[in-house]
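F.,

This is the one I mentioned.
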């Protein structure tokens, strides 16, 4: 399992983006400008549905 935080490939240079990582059986998402701030946690299936919806 890869627990590295990754920025969106569509993020701009102004730092306004989110980062995501796989953690256990979930995906965690945070604001890249506030690495110590709150983290949202999603199950893997809801995360996949979310990504398909974005496409």
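My design for it:
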């Amino acid at each position: 399992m890869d627990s590295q935080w990754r920025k969106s490939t569509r993020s701009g240079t102004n730092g306004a983006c989110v980062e995501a990582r796989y953690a256990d059986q979930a995906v965690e998402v945070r604001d890249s400008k506030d690495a110590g701030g709150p983290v949202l946690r999603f199950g893997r299936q809801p995360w996949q549905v979310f990504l398909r919806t974005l496409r």
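The chain is about 20% helix and 35% strand.

Talk soon.
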